[in-house]
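fyi for ur records
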Amino acid sequence: MSAAQTAVATQNDHSKSEDFTLLELVQAVCEVTGDDREVVATVKHMLRTGRVRLAGNFRARQELILS
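which gave:
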């Protein structure tokens, strides 16, 4: 399953969230759209709603990404 398919599956299943690095999440969204503003908006939405969680270097800095 590609990162985009995993992200979409996670978005459709509200009962669980998956851990992604920020890079993996951005790459997954970029597979679906080439519009940078849409990528940023989608990533922020997925993080704010708890549909995905960050893993890796940005895990503890999620609040900076959302501001």
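DSSP finds four helices and two strands in the chain. thats all i got for now
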